[in-house]
Design a protein that fits this description.
The structure is a homodimer of 435-residue chains.
Chain A (H helix, E strand, L loop, with lengths): L6 E5 L23 H13 L4 E4 L19 H9 L6 E7 L5 H15 L3 E6 L4 H4 L10 H19 L28 E2 L4 E2 L14 E4 L4 H10 L2 E2 L6 H17 L8 E2 L2 E6 L3 H11 L5 H12 L25 H12 L4 H4 L3 E2 L2 E6 L1 H13 L5 E4 L6 H16 L12 H4 L10
Parallel strand pairs in A: 1-2, 1-13, 2-3, 3-4, 4-7, 7-8, 8-9, 10-12, 10-13
Antiparallel strand pairs in A: 5-6, 11-12
Helix pairs in contact in A: 3-5, 5-6, 6-7, 12-13
């Protein structure tokens, strides 16, 4: 067993990870704009010992109107309000490097890091959806290469701004008229790059954890490189243990290539838990969540979505799952299916129970789900998971009630929050002096 | 006496309105980044029955290092955290139309309006400081005319986005697969203007007060026009009653010209209170706050700052105060001095006690301060004030303890918060159906 703990983050978007989650029994469908809903979810997550809550984001109203709106309240605003109410837990805030300006975003995240006592994690995304681009100008969505070049420069600038003004708690000057800061403690960054020209310094001092953590979900070569260079936390769609190990090694290789300690990031792939009293009940719930009356309907829909022949018990070949290097949408979900069937022998019937909405599905009794969670972690393949409950708050409540105690009994998850900042919690290096 | 109440907002930037306020006795100088400091201030403001707290903003570290940093934590983030902790009170959030994008800002403010239960007021500024421009690109600060054209288009777009998605609390669809919204309830805005191309709709539904309120501090012709067209609350530097009446009538005229009811905005000029047990003590405190040992030093510094001859008891002529229509900095502070000496006969000795940091100074015992506050309001010249305590929390505590009870006893200010949204509190028209 690893000497360090298991790290669990939890996705808290909208009414849940699942498109049909708005119809959960006993919960108002429009709870996706209710602060009390998110407060209940965050308090559940804290009771469960989760390291952080996570909001993915797209600044556009999705077109699929029969699904719950996955992205509505702004992550920075919603998590700031939650940080003021819920102690201890961290906040993974998604914000686009394509549709923000570095000074504003660096300042807003640094402000929340002060207010929350060092609980901010910025999830950098470059935004792949043309519907987003249409809310930010007349031009088309830039290509992947340009978006990733901008993302890399954006992160560099934000990190420079976060370390540009030392002034933290310290002695006051002796008298009026003496400076509260000097050129040595508040330094312009004078950045001039391909995308940004920014003088600085930031008008917010260095915060309680030096600077906020950075999360990244790179799956393309450019994304993995960005994660290797900058990410403290890595989120990814990894469906099989061998594929996960290979991915981890790729990020480590890119980290080393950028001169970082290859162990200085934490890998927390997505995980969708469906927990029930029996395996049969969990299988039925999986079908129901997807709006299907039985397994056959589920398998047919899965085959249709991925362009597979409907032959439930024939072995699937990896060639059936092809991602294009220049595709506009995220590469990760297609690639993870490819990598899973390349490393395990699976039929359609089996594959359809290994993935839900793109992420790893773990399905069964609480004991079976806990064992699948512990398996990869014990082997050192992952540091933990980003749990995506299909419906909120229902599936999170079940998970905290039934699975968390098993993870604690196994010695993987401690009760309480002994460390105050997320940097300390994830045992990550401290690059800056703190106040 | 007016049938409606007196509205008081309060400025809560940093350690106080005054540059030397970091040195207040018994308070840590670096409280400008302490959430607990702002929480104490907001709770004091709520106890005093203030309608809203207000943060001005510049996204740049100021150059005057011997003064407290006036702008550090981001107003949107700080007020979101406070909204989650302090009930009832409203939040005037300054955000620049020159250095934000309309979709992000509309969404963030709408998100907070949901979370806070309709307590958001957006203070639109166009940003006049070249130090800000240098944090947002290589280009120079655009001229006033261009910034105001952008501001007007920005506000139009934000209002359109705020009313683009009807969906609020309502019945759920009958079954899975039915739409949660339609083209009739979520409408693209398809805006194409000089500065912005934005499709929409917003991904946040209409909120509890229809849309957030808009505040504006226009002093130039373009600023007054923008206030007349869009502002629900108007903040301005108005130093004399006759000048204030003239300004109010100008905004009313511009509102009518834009087809609005001329009574559909509330005028809340700035007001700096210095309250002491005796008038003499208040005069000495005014000198001390400004770092001067006596009145003569105060008068000399005032004369130097405004380029006036040092002749304490000679009557000042309005020609001494000239603002240029194309000046880069704010026109309001120079114009308000001009208008005051044009409508009242004042010497340097008198003028230096009528203004502090650009806004109207009211100085004396609690009774004298309360009377000056009530005077303009009783005459219908203003709807209230934006109080700027010289030091925080000290001067706000004094004001709430000594002045607020007198305003309540006069029947001007009610105890408690009978209305839940700021739109209701300010008795402003409701332009949209609410959920």
């Amino acid at each position: 067993m690893p000497s360090r703990g298991l790290f669990l983050n939890v996705g808290v978007n909208s009414t849940g990870y699942h498109g049909n989650s708005w119809l959960a029994p006993g919960a108002a469908w429009d709870r996706f704009v209710s602060f009390d809903h998110y407060l209940e979810v965050a308090e559940l997550a804290r009771a469960g010992g989760f390291a952080a809550v996570f909001l993915s984001d797209h600044p556009a109203l999705q077109r699929a109107a029969e699904s719950r709106p996955l992205h509505s309240l702004d992550p920075l605003v919603l998590f700031t309000a939650l940080a003021a109410r819920v102690p201890d837990i961290g906040f993974v805030i998604t914000a686009s490097s394509s549709y923000n300006s570095p000074y504003n975003l660096a300042r807003r995240l640094a402000s929340l890091d002060h207010i929350s006592g060092g609980r901010v994690i910025w999830n950098v995304v470059s935004s792949f959806n043309p519907d987003i681009a249409a809310n930010f100008g007349a031009g088309p969505l830039p290509g992947r290469a340009q978006r990733y070049r901008r993302a890399a420069e954006f992160v560099e600038v934000v990190k420079a701004l976060w370390s540009s003004w030392d002034r933290t708690a310290g002695p006051a000057p002796e008298a009026l008229g003496e400076p509260l800061w000097t050129d040595a403690t508040a330094r312009p960054i004078d950045h001039h790059g391909e995308f940004f020209d920014i003088r600085g310094p930031l008008n917010v001092p260095i915060g309680p954890q030096g600077r906020p953590l950075i999360a990244q979900a790179g799956a393309s070569a450019a994304g993995i490189d960005l994660a290797g260079e900058h990410a403290d936390l890595v989120y990814a769609a990894l469906l099989g243990k061998d594929a996960a190990r290979a991915y981890r090694d790729q990020v480590r290789e890119r980290a080393a290539a950028h001169g970082r300690d290859p162990s200085s990031f934490r890998l927390l792939p997505g995980l969708v838990p469906i927990v029930a009293d029996t395996t049969e009940q969990a299988l039925r719930r999986h079908e129901q969540l997807n709006g299907h009356p039985d397994e056959t309907a589920l398998l047919r829909a899965f085959a249709d979505r991925h362009g597979l022949p409907f032959d439930p018990d024939a072995v699937l070949l990896p060639e059936l799952f092809v991602s294009e290097a220049d595709q506009q949408g995220p590469i990760g979900f297609t690639r993870s299916l490819h990598d899973l069937v390349a490393t395990e022998t699976l039929t359609l019937r089996q594959l359809a129970r290994r993935v839900d909405g793109g992420h790893r599905l773990v399905l069964g009794t609480a004991e079976a789900v806990a064992e699948q969670i512990l398996d990869w972690w014990r082997d050192g393949v992952v540091d933990g998971y980003t749990v995506q409950p299909p419906t909120l708050p229902h599936d999170l409540r079940t998970f905290v009630r039934d699975v968390i105690p098993l993870l604690r009994a196994a010695g993987a998850l401690s009760a309480g929050y002994p460390e105050s900042t997320v940097r300390q919690r994830f045992a990550l290096p401290q690059p800056l002096p703190v106040g």
